[in-house]
Amino acid sequence: MSEPRSNLERFVLAGVERLREQDPVLYEILDNEYRRQANVLSMVASSSIADPSALICEASTAMNVTAEGYPGRRFHAGCRHIDQIEQLAIDRAKEVFGAKFANVQPMTATSANEVVMFTVMQAGDKLLGMELDSGGHLTHGSKASISGQVFDAVGYGLDENERIDYDSAMRQALEHRPKLVICGTTAYAREVDWKKFREIADAVDAFLLADITHIAGLVAAGIHPSPIDHAHFTTTCTHKQLYGGRGGLIMIGKDYDQPAPGGKGTLAEMIQKKVFPFFQGAPNQSSIASKARGLAFVGSPEFKAVAQRIVDLSRALAGAFVEKGYRVITGGSDNHIVVVDVREKGITGVNAEKALEDCGIVVNKNRIPFDQRPPSITSGIRLGTNGLAIREMEPQDMVECVDIIHDILQGVRQESDTKYSIEPAARARAEEGVARLCKLRPITTYPPVVD
Ligand SMILES: Cc1ncc(COP(=O)(O)O)c(C=O)c1O
Asked: Model-level pTM?
């Protein structure tokens, strides 16, 4: 490695050295995690492989600065550079998504969604969101989250073709007259029609929130249509398809200067107040730096090819499952997600997830439409291609991935909903296949693992 060129480089190297010397236990765990990620095929649809340049921002001294407020209007001194970082992240978010307003401070997409809910609703108000087992997210009205406990949530779902049932969403809206309609999904492999959702919201004078947490990269690259000027608010996390630091982002398009409910300022002004001081104190400035880095990556011309690869791999993955006789929900994929029904294999989603992980393939158990099993068991698995795209995999590699997955699942003997064993020969073949693929397609942006 060349001599450190800057204070930042010397700082990062000194930090790693001090960790090794002073906390070998934690150092080893973190080193093992690096090794694990290099040696498994991570196909969790809600994860990705962030660039080292984004992750290193999280390890910077920006973390030390307490900076309540916003650039130029802080409640603490010492924020000269912090203001520059936050402004850069705001400007990049606006540029990448064509937004008129961006708040980069929310710590998660969950809190971004909560901010929007509390901007336009009071406790007890009606909210219309997508049902969990249809592919909606917990924060869209589930009883397990604030969204379903503080607000009176009703849901829409899928039609007989497992596509979003816009007609039923309109009927639900007309019957319940929600204050907020939420669209955007967590386990839905098809395009979302933002314009139709705006028509539904407008029909009952509701606000529309589009949560693009899963597909933000495809939206940034122009591969999935953008909701920015259809929805009143667009939220996303920054750590899945934006390949940046862990956190949330709220944006507004053409409606940014519409009056907020209660007549106290515009929608944009009210979001600022609800993020700070209503929900949060001082933001995580190193995470904001990392968000800025991720946004620069997805705004670069090179990212278009990454985004296209994400979709090409997902289509090939879905096709390979169908070819092997699996029921893929909706029959294919338009984004990075593939949801597979594993009931015909005689196993539960959780056993499939665990057996695959035992062999080095990381996916997650997922409910399928109208699933009779609870979220801890499920009848399906959800896979995603964000990480595989960073490994620069090719569509033909997806056939090999599915061959390995199929071999494992064929070798699983289910003892109960949560207990299973894997035939040793199938396991050995799978481990060999995963090791071969990881070597052939390493994480291109990370230094190779040393033993
Ligand atoms: C659609 C959607 N919204 C929100 C979230 C929550 O994201 P976070 O973990 O950043 O709170 C997720 C998580 O996967 C999601 O899929």
From this structure: 0.96
